[in-house]
Design goal:
Blueprint lengths: L2 H26 L14 E4 L2 E4 L4 E7 L2 E6 L5 H11 L5 E3 L4 E4 L5 H38 L4 H34 L2
Antiparallel strand pairs: 1-2, 3-4, 4-6, 5-6
Length: 186
């Protein structure tokens, strides 16, 4: 495989990672329905070690607006409650002595717009990453041109890099449109 194809393959692989990251971030933004993924990224103090919440408790969705958290050990109730409060996800945990329940309030129009703004921010970050990946690929292509690769081959590779960028930015737009529709659906 020539160096040019290697650069383009690396560019595509890195852009795929940017899309995966965007998908993970968008999954954390709630769209009115309760989902265990809303709690991804929340750590709790498990005997002095920060531990992901899903490794310290069983997380289940009881209905569209309620998440139940059943800790493996009763002593973990308070640290889990603290971890959820510290994560600032906008939901106050209800502790009944055995389980912790999270009741999701219905989304107001204003809150929906805030969530859409947050999604658009994540989308913008993904687009910036994709453009930076393109810039790096084009710099590498130009370096190869200086080292003697033909100008035509380099121009074709640069066009391919730009085409990949356009494709991935369209994927970001599609994800954002879907998430916005999901959030704004009442």
């Amino acid at each position: 495989m020539s160096n040019l194809s290697q650069i383009l393959a690396d560019e595509t692989a890195t852009m795929n990672k940017a899309i995966s990251h965007l998908e993970a971030e968008l999954a954390k933004i709630r769209a009115g329905k309760a989902s265990p993924s809303m709690l991804d990224g929340i750590n709790v103090d498990y005997y002095g070690n920060p531990t992901p919440l899903n490794q310290a408790a069983n997380i289940t969705v009881l209905d569209a607006r309620t998440i139940s958290i059943q800790p493996w050990e009763k002593t973990m109730l308070a640290p889990i409650e603290k971890g959820i409060m510290a994560a600032n996800i906008g939901i106050t945990p209800q502790n009944d002595g055995n389980t912790i329940r999270l009741f999701l309030p219905p989304l107001t129009e204003e809150r929906r717009k805030e969530l859409v703004k947050r999604c658009n921010g994540e989308g913008e970050n993904a687009k910036i990453s994709i453009r930076n990946i393109r810039r790096d690929a084009i710099e590498q292509i130009k370096k190869l041109q200086k080292e003697g690769v033909s100008e035509d081959e380099c121009k074709d590779a640069e066009k391919e890099a730009q085409d990949a960028t356009d494709r991935y930015i369209a994927i970001v737009e599609k994800h954002l449109a879907f998430k916005e529709k999901e959030i704004m659906a009442v």
